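Moderator note: this is an archived Q&A kept for reference. The question asked for a predicted structure of one protein chain; the sequence and the answer are reproduced below.
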Amino acid sequence: NPKSTEKPRIYIDSILYSPDTLRLYAFVVIEFKGRMMDESYLEEIARYYVDYPDKSFFDGKAVIAYRDDYRDIWKLYPYDHYLPFNGESYSDIRYALRQYYFNEFKKNGETILHKNTLRFKYNVDDPEFWTEDCIVWQKGLRIPGYYNFQTRGNITRESLNPIIPELDIIYPDSLLRLFPGFQTSQDKK
């Protein structure tokens, strides 16, 4: 967790779109100033703190989104399958994200309701990634009508809060003026 009071900077590194532009996958890099190098869950180093108040550290995340029509707003979700953190440079995290999602992702998978582990079969830059042949885009594997990225792990409809809410996107007024009648998720609430 950052010690600095400076807000983190968020960079959208890369966005990949499905051929029909109804699905997207994006890499996000987050820059923090003055990150404490220790992570409290690592007992062996929990008591050692190295504070660099003027140094930047970087974390990586991915987001995934879909829409039913190209005129619809994106339904955006975090995709926390792989989270590189505490990188010393933007390029370290960018490389780690690309290495995993372009080369290693297909070898991994998800366990469905504590029973079967299903493999992704494709990397996110493979054309087949965008098809229902990839488990990322198969609805109902955990809860009927939902993609796995919309649910919290291996839980069922009966579990408490099983559905992850989509992320809010705050569109600048300058963009909204270009699309009269466009409704954001905030407008629909």
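Archived answer notes: The beta strands are 9-17, 23-33, 56-66, 75-78, 109-112, 116-119.
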